[in-house]
Request: fold
Amino acid sequence: MRITIFAAGSQGDIQPCLRLGKGLKQSGFEVLLAAPQNFSALSWEQGVLFHPLRGDVQEIMAGETGRKFMERNGANPIQSILAMRKMLGPIAVQMAEDALEASREAEAFITLAVFAPFGKTIAEICGIPLILVEPTPMLPTGDFPAPGFPIQRNLGRLLNHLSGFMMLQVIWQWYRPFVNEFRSRYSLRTLRGSDFYRILTSTPLLSAYSPTVIPHPRDWSEDVHITGYWFQEDAGDWRPSAELETFLKAGEAPTYVGFGSMAGRDPERFAKIVIEALAKSGQRGVIATGWGGMSVMNVPGNVFVLDSAPHGWLFPRMSAVVHHGGAGTTAEGLRAGVPSVIVPFTVDQPFWGQRVQSLGAGPQPIRATRLNADKLSDAILRAVKNVEMRRRAERVGKAIRAEDGLGNAVKIVQKYLGAQ
Reply:
């Protein structure tokens, strides 16, 4: 059976789709990943066939408009609408057309739930079933406020639920005109915001996170499958440098610090805060600069700087991990069984910071706009020294490592598509 998987966004958005594609291929499906051209090498490395889409979302987010969005508009749902339309306008319909072209011979279509209206349109045109994937919860629930909602504390069941509907409408407004322009080309009816919710609730949804972290809310249907995280179980040909191995063996386990691309337009500020916080806390550190991230120079001898390393290899060797709270990085931190210090910048990152704190696997998250060396030093010391926090992190890690999220997801796809 031939399946096209459509994904766009940052590497954190692409990876779950790629890992699912690899798992489906290993179980006998013919899989084609339709994603921006800049992810072609990543796809071929995993042995998944690739169809390029026009438009590089990662490049857009690294540009001036994207960085402003991450620093300001990403924390304000209403302001985010105009910013996202400005960024998506030149590429949204092009990408949808390319994804459609990749699906002409497909027998099923899988896409990120955030693109559900595009996915529904392509599935309608091709006459094939649709399955959705989400790395972060999208459906409204009374159990917790919606990721991306400005207030990330329990508001009570009614307000939690309303926050979910509000965020769905915000996401819908991000690309409403582009969805309907695409649909009009194929004489399909115009979609409304209520259709977005209807698509999400009437389509099989694979939630690529752990039930240990987010138990299945009772107000979600059985078509929402919380499978467990989808990890990449091998680091490929990656090997640590001799210098990194020497550093790790030279003393106590260090603290990892990395914000990916989130350091925004002031990477020097974050680098200075991190180095000062490590000094104040007396901790050895491993700093990952990331693409477009921190600019680190003149570090002391107890700090090691690297571009990147597979989190699955690196995090278990740390005493604690400090990061921005992206869904994938949070998953790796929890799996490693060490405390996480979350410094959220935007969108769903505050949500994951609160989840980690609620599990007792990390201290209270520190908003990036309020970060300073004293706050970060205090948080690192709590993560490293608090015995109960470390025990809870270990328990969560053990539970997550016992799950087979990707295997569960593949079985669910097989069931829905009637393929064994």
Observations:
- The mean pLDDT is 92.
